[in-house]
Amino acid sequence: NALVALLGEGEQANPAATERGPNGRYQVMLQQKVETDIAYITECLADVLGDLDIDPRLLTANPFVQDFSDKTVVSDKEMQVLSFSLVLLNMIEENARVQIRRKINQDGHSLKGTFTARLDALEKMGITKPEIEAIFADVNAEIVLTAHPTEARRHDFIKQLRELYVLMVKREKLHEYAPPQEVQEVKDDITAKISDLWNTGEFYTTKPKTESERERGMYFLKVRLPEVVRALDRKLQYDFGQKGIDIKRTEGPDGQMRFTVASWIGGDRDGHSGITAEFTATTLQMMRDTAIEL
Q1: CA quadruple 123, 22, 113, 92: dihedral positive or negative?
Q2: How far is it, in rounded angstroms, from Cα 147 to Cα 266?
Q3: Which residues of 143-172 are buried (b: 16+ CB within 10 A; e: fewer)?
Q4: Are 38 and 85 in contact (CB under 8 A)?
Q5: Distance from C-alpha of 207 to C-alpha of 227, rounded to nearest angstrom
Q6: Which of 32, 48, 52, 249 is deepest in the core (most CB within 10 A)?
Q7: Is 271 in a helix, a strand, or coil?
Q8: Which stretches of the chain are DSSP H helices?
Q9: Where are the alpha helices (DSSP H) in 67-209?
């Protein structure tokens, strides 16, 4: 149940959060958003198939439009459209969950696994605000990066999918009185990005080289990780501040929460025959340069 995953069992039973049966109004909102976005993306995908001179009837293989599970023979093109559609569907569902989480939070409910929910739990345990401040002053949070050898999806495809997600968010932020030209421009951008995705191979056809695995890891270290850390830091400061808890950073290493990054990339000397001493040394230098740059 998507709503239980967002709110947790306790909040699911809250009458304020459930106005229409066990799933509540948020589940209805989630379903409506998914259906609306599916209709929009399907229209864009149909335009892409038409521009590529692909028979639009292949959209019958699209799970957005029709269930063809009773077919005994599926063509290669139908399978390609189906696989691609499922990728888009996952993106749509992810976006919908994010938007509903924001709505639930705006309504004053604690989301399962969030800072606010954890602080509420600590308060119920009788832990005071000064004690919480002291605990967090001694926290050292560490994440470990790894390039998993079974990762089959290409980095370029992941990047394109992320850009499509951002365009969908841009569409949502359009004002209801936005000029028709602006609305059409966003739709054209989304259609073009879907076309780029279609023409970008989703999976590696050969086993990735150690250099490409390292490149992908460095991308997350240099681009994605700083974005996420900054967003989490702002969220942490805000949520704790709303509870009257001061965890602002202080001068020097003492009295502040610490965040560190570790990595297996380029260092798995006992588990990867391609990781040589020279490769490890080069990787360490790249990470050092990245750390200085950041």
Answers
A1: negative
A2: 9
A3: eebebeeeeeebbebbebbeebbebbeebe
A4: no
A5: 29
A6: 48
A7: coil
A8: 2-7, 9-12, 24-51, 76-106, 115-124, 129-137, 155-172, 180-198, 210-219, 225-242, 277-293
A9: 76-106, 115-124, 129-137, 155-172, 180-198
Query: How many residues are given for the chain?
Result: 294
Which pLDDT does position 5 carry in this prediction?
Answer: 44
Place of tokens 């292949």: 58
Residue 84 near residue 103 (C-beta atoms within 8 A): no
Model-level pTM? 0.68
Handedness of CA 118, 124, 128, 131 (dihedral sign): negative
Tokens of 109: 């409910």
Exposure of 131 by Cβ count < 10 A (0-12 exposed, 13-18 middle, 19+ buried)?
Answer: exposed
Q: Round to whole Å and give the CA distance between 101 and 104.
A: 5
Residue 3 confidence (pLDDT) above 70: no
